[in-house]
Specification:
The chain has 253 residues and is α/β, with parallel strands linked by helices. The protein has one domain: 3-Layer(aba) Sandwich (Rossmann fold). It is 38% helix and 15% strand. Strands 1-3-2-4-5-6-7 form a 7-stranded mixed β-sheet, sandwiched between helices. Strand 4, helix 3 and strand 5 form a beta-alpha-beta unit. Helix 2 packs across helix 3. The protein is globular.
């Protein structure tokens, strides 16, 4: 389980579980440390896809179905035991949605809250770019990453690490390209509340209102200072942790 879902701060007595899904090209390490920031009522885990971190020697996932099935099979028992919420950033938001849809359809399980961060809506040009970035030239992909990432995101200067990042970004784009989701008329997939976050200077995730179509529950929107990687700013991270905690604990009442 640990190679697929990292949970370095285990809390067996926690009332809730928060599962985090990282952005394209990254592994579990950033969100894994969130476990030390949350209260004892919430246990935090972070998803780690093949080809990165402790799974760097494994072949990349070929499609979203493989990603969803692997994550769901690892998480299923724990999610059946306690209420859970999902948090995803950018590419991770779409993976979290795909997993949530699968769990709802196959097992009748639903998060008590969905947190979508830096995620352009499915009908946006920015989402189309994410799905087709695997066909972009390396230098153009890096240029876009540096522009959207701003000062908080550093592209590795080491040649091998930079090449691995590019490969990982493109493989994640291929995964996203294999995923399609269309709601049937009158079929709203979720009843849980959804909260959307984005950076005030993020040109990718500007119009997020369409996310409210995914649920019959409440939808809220927060714009925090910064660009696409606004969440790497410590003050924004503190805000996220406090707000997510409040929403999760309130949902459990």
């Amino acid at each position: 389980m640990e190679k697929v879902v990292a949970c370095p701060y285990k809390r067996p007595d926690a009332l809730y579980r928060l599962i985090c899904f990282p952005w394209a090209g990254s592994g579990a390490s950033h969100f894994a440390h969130w476990g030390s920031l949350f209260s004892s009522s919430i246990e935090v885990s972070s998803v780690n896809l093949p080809g990165r971190d402790s799974r760097q020697g494994e072949p990349f996932a070929k499609d979203m179905a493989h990603v969803v099935n692997e994550i769901s099979s690892v998480l299923l028992k724990g999610l059946q035991e306690k209420p859970f919420a999902f948090f995803g950033h950018s590419f991770g938001s779409y993976v979290s949605l795909a997993v949530a849809l699968h769990l709802k359809e196959k097992y009748g399980l639903e998060p008590i809250h969905l947190f979508l961060s830096g995620a352009p809506t499915l009908n946006s040009e920015a989402f189309t770019y994410l799905k087709t970035a695997h066909g972009v030239k390396d230098e153009d992909l890096l240029a876009n990453l540096e522009i959207s990432g701003g000062t908080l995101f550093e592209v590795p200067q080491n040649k091998d690490r930079k090449k691995h990042l590019i490969n990982t970004l493109k493989e994640d784009s291929r995964v996203l390209h294999t995923w399609s989701f269309e709601m049937a008329d009158g079929n709203i997939p979720f009843s849980c509340d959804i909260t959307c976050f984005n950076g005030s200077e993020d040109q990718q995730a500007r119009d997020l209102e369409a996310w409210h179509d995914l649920t019959s529950g409440d939808t809220s929107f927060y714009k925090l200072p910064g660009g696409h990687f606004y969440l790497l700013e410590p003050s924004n991270e503190i805000f996220l942790v406090k707000l997510i905690t409040r929403y999760i604990e309130h949902a459990g009442l």
